[in-house]
Amino acid sequence: MKNILVVSWYTIREAMARKVFIFFSGISGLVVIFTAVILGVTNVDSIVQGFAGKNAAPMMAEIVSKLEIAITTPLASLGLLLAIFASSSFIPIMLEKGNIDLLLSKPVSRTQLLWGKYLGGLLVVFLNIAILIIGVWLSISIKFSLWSFTFLWSILIITFTFAVLYSIIVLFGVITKSSMFGMMIAYLIFLILSPLLKFGHGDLQNIISSEFWKGVIDTLYYIFPKTSELMSNTILTLAQGQGIENYQPLWTSFVFLAAMMFISNYIFNKKDF
Amino acid sequence: MNTIETTGLTKVYSSSMGRRRVQALLDLHLSVPQGTIFGLLGPNGAGKTTLVKLLLGITFPTVGSAKILGENINNYKVKKRIGYLPENHKYPPYLTGGEVLNFFGKLSGLEGRSLEKKIDELLDMMKLLKWKKTKVKNYSKGMMQRLGLAQAMLNEPELIFLDEPTDGVDPIGRKEIRDILLDLKAQSKTIFLNSHLLSEVELITDRVGILNKGKLLQEGTVQELTDKEEYLINIDEESGSLPDNINTSILMKLNKGKYSLKVNDIVELNKIIDQMRGGGVMINEIIKHKDTLEDMFINLITESEKENQA
Question: Which residues pair with B220 in a beta bridge?
Fold first, then answer.
């Protein structure tokens, strides 16, 4: 465990040396400050009273959840896009000649090395997302005096979404020793495949008449990670204070992640360097 | 006790489609005794680095097995007792020299004050202490090499693998590295040295192995490998005739009045001198010429290449 922590810590150092994570932290910080300032100068109470009269409380809660979603979801998505880009080279750099030789000459198992790199990447993203979500949440909650703690779970949901995408990057990094392929596959799943399969599993089922194609789409839907659902539906219900209503996207994505990491670990342990 | 023992170690690299196969190491049986400096020599692509990588578990053998420090090479925990300086090593450019050592020290199981103390001690020994807080991306090649050596010595290893340790180091630095290696040997540490610099290997190694195309051609002490003595004899050919019974396989005419004589020892030389003098030959000069490791290496590799072509 100690070895994993050492590798993780130095992966965080590696991440901090890259400007992308600093850039995202900077944007998050600016958004938090901007939100706090705008809310500070806005007289929200009189606006809500004007619209809702005596039923101001439920409307206030809805405004809070919508504000939280409106600010954090696009930023967190941008954060994930940047994180995929920045973390895609962690494994290929580790596998470079002269680098991997040194690491493997130390009393560290290959599994520890791989998991250290993986956890280090996750921790960096977790910290970045936590700064953003906690900052926005505090600004909104203080202003409205409404504390929706369940929204904070979205820090873990977004980090988990990244964990799934990062497992793809790790697998292709181990196989190809290059950052490009894993990054492209992760973007493909995050931006195209997952939204398409979500649509195919939902609304499209009513349009398609062929049972065969329905089956194909459903199979693909269950195989691939549900990053689109995690980043929209799950976070929406968390912001509304309802908790996680549907665990299926979580556990099926987790199975995908586990499979990716198992294969990565197997290949890494057999590979010649 | 042997620190390294290999039995029939063989490595074949195959391309991803399996079409191209490269025999990097073939049926290697090698023993390196404890407390010695062993030099592994060979031209580029001979299999030197492959052997080190196999011993360190960086690459896996196709056939055969090996033990280091009495443990099977598959046991990664034995690396706590090993140091390694690879050729063309890379360190994270955003770390300082001190941080690089801290990272590898922690991976070697060291921590706390003892690690900090060891880092300062080694940086001082390598004349890098004042560069401790400088990022390694600003280090010169020689400084990187010295940092690499410090890294390899961090855990006070019993066995150290060094791949071209003096590469990029100036002559004074080389001498200092040689002294460090001899000092380590005096502490009963075993050093496995891969180097192209034959003159340096000759200066410090106890035993030498010569590898070509994955095969171990010869192994022994430098003395054993360069044992054949050669003499250049300059005679006055008109003063007498060379005896008929002289062995022509050891005496070779170079040019007028000059002969090259290869003998195993001084007794054989004296016998031939007696024969020459008996025939009335006037000897003008005898020059002793001993094969250097480099001469022997080049001859051996050339012969091996000829055999391979035949």
Answer: B208
Residues of A with CB below 8 A from B53's CB? Answer: 101, 272-273
Which chain B residues are closer than 8 Å to A108 by Cβ?
Answer: 76, 79, 107
Sequence letter at residue B179:
D
Q: Could you tell me if B56 lies within 8 Å of chain A, comparing CB atoms?
A: yes
Whether residues A14 and B88 touch (CB distance < 8 A) is answered with no
Among A102, A178, A267, A268, pick the best mutation site for testing chain B contact (most B Cβ within 10 A).
A102
Q: What is the DSSP letter of A54?
A: G
Residues in B touching A96 (Cβ below 8 Å): 90
The dihedrals phi and psi of B276, each to the nearest 5 degrees, come to -65, -50
Q: Do B106 and A99 touch (CB under 8 A)?
A: no
How far from A131 is each of A27, A35, A68, A78, B58, CA to CA, in Å? 11, 14, 14, 14, 40
Q: Token pair for residue B41?
A: 């020599």
Q: How far is CA B199 from the centre of its chain?
A: 10
Count of beta carbons in the 10 Å neighbourhood of residue A1: 7
* Residue whose pair of structure tokens reads 């693909």 in the numeric block: A220
Give the nearest partner residue to B108 out of A10, A17, A106, using CB atoms.
Answer: A106
Helix (H) or strand (E) segment spanning residue A65: helix A56-87
pLDDT digits (tens, 9 = 90+) for B144-189: 999 999 999 999 999 999 998 888 788 888 888 888 888 888 898 9
Say if CB A143 and CB A156 are below 8 A apart: no
What ipTM, to 2 d.p.? 0.81
For chains A and B, count residue pairs whose Cβ atoms are closer than 8 Å: 75
SS3 A96: coil
| Orientation angle between helical segments B141-153 and B112-125, nearest 10 degrees | 140
Q: In Å, how far are A25, A133, B29, B66 from A29, measured between CA atoms? A: 6, 10, 62, 56
* A147-187 pLDDT per residue, tens: 888 888 889 999 999 999 999 999 999 999 999 999 999 99
CA nearest A66: which of A241, A189, A250?
A241
Are the Cβ atoms of B84 and A99 closer than 8 angstroms? no
pTM of the model: 0.83
Spell out which residues of chain A touch residue B108, defining contact as CB-CB under 8 Å: 106-107
Query: What is d(CA B148, CA B119) in angstroms, rounded to the nearest whole number?
Result: 12
Radius of gyration of chain B (CA): 25
Dihedral sign, Cα of residue A127, residue A131, residue A134, residue A136: negative
**Of B89, B95, B106, which is closest to A98 when you measure between CB atoms?**
B89
| Chain B residues lying within 8 Å of A105, measured CB to CB | 56, 58, 79, 82-84, 86, 161
